[in-house]
Design brief:
Largest sheet: 7 strands, mixed
Helix content: under 10%
Shape: globular
Radius of gyration: 13 Å
Strand content: over 45%
Number of helices: 0
Structural class: mainly beta
Order of helices and strands: EEEEEEEEEEE
Distance between the termini: 40 Å
C-alpha cells in the first residue's frame, strides 16, 4: 500500500507560478513511477507529467516547456510556470507500484485571467 498527500495548490494569476508537492508513505520501495494527472470541470482526467524510476520524464504536449516534474526519495514535485487559465483543474498525484496505481486526494489549481 502507498499513501499520497499533496500540497501546494491555490489561486494564481495567468503568467504566474505554483509548485505542487506530493509525499508518499507506506511501501515506497515498490514505487516505479510517480506523476501528476489533472481533471478540469466537464473534462476527462489527463496525464500532466510522469517520472519513472530511472529518471526519464514524459509531459503532456500542453505543458511542455512550462512545467517541470522532479522526484526525490519519496516525493514528487511539479513546478508550474507561465500558468494559463486552461491549466485550471484538480491535480492528482499518482504512484505506480506493483502494477497498481495509487492516487492522492487532489489539490485545486485555479488560474485567473
Amino acid at each position: 500500500q502507498v499513501q499520497l498527500v499533496e500540497s501546494g495548490g491555490g489561486l494564481v494569476q495567468a503568467g504566474g507560478s505554483l509548485r505542487l508537492s506530493c509525499a508518499a508513505s507506506g511501501s515506497i520501495f515498490s514505487i516505479t513511477a510517480m506523476g501528476w494527472y489533472r481533471q478540469a470541470p466537464g473534462k476527462q482526467r489527463e496525464l500532466v507529467a510522469v517520472v519513472i524510476r530511472g529518471g526519464s520524464t514524459n509531459y503532456a504536449s500542453s505543458v511542455k516547456g512550462r512545467f517541470t516534474i522532479s522526484r526525490g526519495k519519496n516525493t514528487v514535485t511539479l513546478q508550474m510556470n507561465s500558468l494559463k487559465p486552461e491549466d485550471t483543474a484538480v491535480y492528482y498525484c499518482t504512484a505506480e507500484a506493483t502494477q497498481y496505481i495509487y492516487w492522492g486526494q487532489g489539490t485545486q489549481v485555479t488560474v485567473s485571467s
